[in-house]
Hints:
The protein is built from 14 helices and no strands. The chain is mainly alpha-helical.
Amino acid sequence: MIQVLSSAWALLLGMGLLMIGNGMQGTMLGIRGAIENFSTFEMSIVMSCYFVGFLGGSRMAPGMIRRVGHVRVFAALASLISAVMILYPTFPNIIVWSLGRILIGFCFSAVYVTAESWLNNAADNSNRGQALSLYMIVQTLGIVISQALLLTADPSGFVLFVIPSILVSLAITPILLSISPTPAFDTTKPMSLRELVNFSPLGAVGMALLGGIFAAQFGMSSVYAAQAGLSIGQISVFVSSFFVGAIVLQYPIGLMSDRMDRRYLVIGVCLVGLLASILGMTMGANFNFLLISSFLTGGMSNPLYSLLIAHTNDFLEHEDMAAGSSGLIFINGLGAVFGPIVLGFLMGTSLGPSAFYLYTAVLFGVLLVYAAYRTTQRKTVPTDETGSYVPIYPTATAMAVEYAQEIAIEAEQEDETAA
């Protein structure tokens, strides 16, 4: 662990600052949108635009990096992020905000690809797993910390947009000054979606549904909270609880994943997510129950991302794992693009804020039923023949997932050698 920190502290610090900035701007838009009297559906379009940009960035970033290099891409896109964050309060217009979210999603995706390739280069076989775990924890903690900063100023002013802009600008400094040399860059061409569905129908369908769930939590939770009449302090704690649950419950679920049929674990995770969503829908007027609901739904959905990747890997050869994961990320991104739009439409009806948890309950329920159906269609893979579960969060790009795949393959090969 000390070796990882000594070799990658600048990258981890920079990524932490970037995630604080990203978490602040996402939640602030939900709060500020209510102040500016934007409709719920208008805000759902704004939130969806982030995932449109993120999906586009993940496809285009590798080519940009190959043409001009890691340093130029990282510096240029981080500067754009900083500028757009100041643009939001200056022009409170739905079109400006939507275009800004597309640009920020694109830039963050490319920045993540750049940072993750650097992290992979900074680690070696002895500490690769620790480096990825630290990176994922720093990302999630950054979002949690960002929510506390919402209490430092009036959301109707400029300060809460200036703070993340400054943090993003500061994040560039330690990374660009301390990390060298830049690594060689290459990516894996994804397999076709038809091939991916044939290999793992549950993985493909599950990723599409999970994209909708994660987009609701990451993009629409602050919109829901503002519509439900929560105070700024309550919104901060509410949004944080999704990601605290992700950190706390990721590893227990990961341990179970390596000891049982992953399809049954998917069913169990979805059942808990379904019940937690029903709790939020029926008892959401009580803030304590609301926090329990958000903690559990966040704690189920984030590990489910890693679980579906691990399940898909059980049916792939080593050389196909990176390509398969890239395809799963693309499917997840499509679900994330359409998720906020559907949710925003529902919240704009007579259902009101309760549609937030009704929406996640339906998606968890559909995935639960489909996972149960898949257990009747394919034999169980013996646990001693399954690959390793590697924790990874939905905020990661294909680069980090390929990095995780390398760790899983190395662990599996070590087990085969020991056997």
